[in-house]
Amino acid sequence: MLLIFTCIEHSDRALDDALEKTGEPPNMEKISDESNKSTSCSYCKNQAVYKIK
Ligand SMILES: [Zn+2]
Hints:
alpha+beta, three-stranded antiparallel β-sheet, single chain, 3 strands, CxxH/CxxC protein, globular, binds zinc ion
């Protein structure tokens, strides 16, 4: 199952990647729960703001 964490800056790229990998429109969720707050972006070292699945 696909799950990409991304910062705001890389959200467009992450959406493109997700679409390419799954062939379906990706689902983007804002990370709100505490457990995911320390997760970093898949494309840079920034803190992830969205998760895409
Ligand atoms: Zn990033």
